[in-house]
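Hi support team,

I've been running sequence recovery on a batch of backbones for a student project. Most finish fine, but this one hangs at about 90% for roughly twenty minutes before it completes. I'm not sure whether the input is malformed or the queue is just slow. I've pasted the structure tokens below so you can try to reproduce it. Let me know if you need the job ID as well.

Thanks,
M.K.
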């Protein structure tokens, strides 16, 4: 279930790419399939161990082009253990809404991106997220949960100015290149969950809608693909913003 459009990101085989906040690795796996040199970065060692195992299975099963490589790295988003300008493309999907010092994380993403490189950031979309917060305190009060709701204007402003810092010093400027919305079918599921109880997986309505989403992800029926395309711009749960770092490699 991908959120980022890698064609829009400009990903090409052989490029060095970072999946910051990789989690279970869904975007890292797709970039690996496309022939990139991938680093899956996260704080969670257990998640990364699972990602590394799947990287190995993909290679053994011949799912990746010759020359593609993939590895994992554990660490803190506020102090990325990479050199300046190390990556051609960066993905930060559904992670900034969890980080208190988001502007510092943005500054680090920009630092490790090469001049001319591109960055895709996805966060929960404002309206679907507001509904979730109002329906359930448990949705966002859980440990490690969402701590803010972004508007597109706020996030664009923070990234294009390289982050807003307490001392007023701007970071490196980025160029905003547009946005998409994704996962329109998923927003109603979370509204249901928040209404009946975030941990209440046995509620009949939540169970029924979950089965629908599993069907969408696993079988990708054309009817649900079409429904998703219609709903994405209206109630898509995720907002994806694309940026480019000025300059040439």
């Amino acid at each position: 279930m991908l959120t980022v459009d890698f064609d829009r990101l400009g990903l090409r085989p052989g490029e060095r790419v970072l999946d910051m906040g990789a989690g279970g690795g869904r975007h890292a796996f797709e970039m690996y399939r496309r022939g990139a040199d991938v680093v899956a970065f996260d704080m969670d060692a257990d998640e990364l161990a699972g990602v590394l195992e799947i990287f190995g299975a993909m290679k053994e099963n011949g799912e990746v082009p010759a020359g593609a490589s993939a590895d994992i790295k554990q660490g803190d988003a506020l102090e990325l253990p990479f050199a300046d300008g190390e990556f051609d493309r960066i993905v930060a999907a559904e992670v900034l809404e969890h980080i208190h010092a988001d502007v510092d994380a943005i500054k680090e993403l920009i630092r490790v991106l090469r001049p001319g490189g591109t960055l895709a950031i996805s966060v929960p979309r404002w309206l679907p997220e507001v509904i979730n917060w109002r329906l359930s305190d448990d949705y966002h009060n859980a440990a490690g949960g969402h701590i803010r709701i972004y508007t597109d204007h706020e996030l664009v402003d923070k990234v294009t100015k390289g982050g807003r810092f307490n001392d007023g010093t701007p970071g490196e400027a980025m160029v905003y290149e547009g946005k998409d919305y994704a996962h329109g079918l998923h927003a109603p599921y979370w509204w249901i969950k928040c209404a009946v109880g975030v941990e209440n997986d046995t509620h009949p309505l939540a169970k029924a809608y979950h089965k629908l989403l599993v069907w969408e992800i696993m079988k990708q029926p054309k009817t649900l693909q079409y429904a998703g395309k219609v709903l994405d711009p209206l109630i898509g749960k995720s907002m994806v913003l694309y940026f480019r770092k000025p300059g040439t490699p």
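--
Follow-up from support: It reproduced on our side and the slowdown came from queue contention, not your input. The chain is about 40% helix and 20% strand. No action needed from you.
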